[in-house]
Task: structure prediction
Amino acid sequence: MSATRRPAIGAEALAAKGWWRTQRFLLLRRLTQAAVLLLFLSGPGWGVWIAKGNLASSLTLGVLPLTDPFLLLQSLAAGHTLATTALVGAAIVGVFYLLVGGRAYCAWVCPMNVVTDTAAWARRRLGLRSGARLSRGWRWALLATALASAAATGTLAWELVNPVTALQRGLLFGMGAAWALVAGVFLFDLFVVPHGWCGHLCPMGATYALLNRFALLRMVARRREACHDCADCYAVCPEPLILKPALKGRGTPVVTSMHCTQCARCLDVCSKDVFTFGTRFAAPSEPQNDTRPRN
Result:
């Protein structure tokens, strides 16, 4: 007798909710990432300057400055004198991500997310289950290294090898040598460490994780009593270990981890609609009594 084959990831949700509701947040994320790139491309491409600069530092519509917190930290470490617009831009970005979740940047804005998500998808398709273990402590070590190199050289040295910066610049102006950095991240995630770059190494993600510690918006396992242990949410989550306390714990149903990217794939692939967006103050729902007649 052959063993029962496990349904494909998301198959139960597809049957229960339909295609749109199993893909909607993934598609919205891709549309958001594409829209952000188009804002920067509109100037050099069509002469309509909506956003000038890049994801690290930009000016939108000539009035709204936005500064990446990681770039701000590097500039301070390098001893640069910061313009008022840079400080205001960092404050705007900081307040925004304190509301929506710091690592939402990683899932909804960063173009490298498409690369790492594709590597994760390829791992599942190829059935690659093994991989090296890597401590999340490495992202803090790289963050410290980036700041130390800025202090030692008086320059934004990390930006010369930052895959995120290289990919955005390449998409807008031609990839060139940036392909090597992007391909390196893809192959690293595919064959060496699952979710290795975003989950364990990226110092920019580490900076946004610090904001995420205090963020208002959270994923919430509001209907966790309905969970039937299909484990699809664990399979698609880029930070799978963060879901269990909220899903299986007796305390808060809120995913409180600073590493959650608010990607909402857990919400997409759950056939029981266990997850939803909420706040850090969300309480569990009350279990509903089954009043149907019994045979």
Confidence is low (pLDDT under 50) at residues 288-295. The longest helix spans residues 19-46. The chain has 14 helices and five strands.
